[in-house]
Description:
- The chain is α+β, with helices and mostly antiparallel strands.
- The chain folds into 2 domains: 14-205 and 224-273, Hsp33 domain, CATH 3.55.30; 279-317, no CATH class.
- The protein has 9 helices and 16 strands.
- It has helices at 38-45, 51-68, 117-121, 150-162, 226-235, 240-244, 250-258, 279-287, 291-296, and strands spanning 2-3, 6-7, 18-24, 29-36, 76-83, 87-95, 99-106, 123-131, 138-146, 166-177, 183-195, 264-265, 269-270, 272-273, 302-306, 313-317.
- It is globular and about 70 Å long.
Amino acid sequence: xxxxxxxxxxxxxxxxxxxxxxxxxxxxxxxxxxxxxxxxxxxxxxxxxxxxxxxxxxxxxxxxxxxxxxxxxxxxxxxxxxxxxxxxxxxxxxxxxxxxxxxxxxxxxxxxxxxxxxxxxxxxxxxxxxxxxxxxxxxxxxxxxxxxxxxxxxxxxxxxxxxxxxxxxxxxxxxxxxxxxxxxxxxxxxxxxxxxxxxxxxxxxxxxxxxxxxxxxxxxxxxxxxxxxxxxxxxxxxxxxxxxxxxxxxxxxxxxxxxxxxxxxxxxxxxxxxxxxxxxxxxxxxxxxxxxxxxxxxxxxxxxxxxxxxxxxxxxxxxxxxxx
Length: 324
């Protein structure tokens, strides 16, 4: 393994809540690996989500971390799903360079017996939005969710929107440890890998199904490059437990996968669970409502606003809320 041109042994020290960029030049692939611990646990436990909901939202958080950390400017990356499944709404907000928050809405009466991400989400759409800031245009890509996992949706997004050969692996699980009493923590991990050869023709992909081609019509099929086939085979061997193992460092995992080819890692990018809400922001939001709407929010002579992301509670008197 090498870093900045220096060959060294992979670090055995696990680092949580960080993105580890890497490159395997022999296979023309670049990627990012993440292991999330305290940040993921903080987001999920604030709402005490049922295990099935926590797992799906956790996968969305891991995926957003991998994608949002690639931003090269002070903007934000937003992943959002709206579906007809038991988990009807998911939103993950990544603010560059390192702030992460997330929220899920679900129907508890429909969760029983449903375990797969595809069934929990159901049918609808996944939106990925890049917000470059005030005065700049937004970029949004939409992917249909039709009984697919978030990994499948990510593959479809890159195939149709970015047209870059991409593979994603996501894993989220609950960790139970004894010590001073049982301890429960959420952990997550993921890898995103892309094929980026210097010769663009090597990255060509087969034609997309237009949806209206005559029956029996021939489609243009491009054989996958041998290097990309090998890279996909290697990433396909990753087990979920390896991605969430608190004792296995990201560098060691990458070395397991690519040591025969040689893998280069770059500086870690840290991630933190941090909401952007504040009393000032909530107060400003209240002023955007009409006086009648603000009056309707009064209960026990005050307005109480709870942030859906972090569960922080903000209280305002009638005077502070601008209600006479």
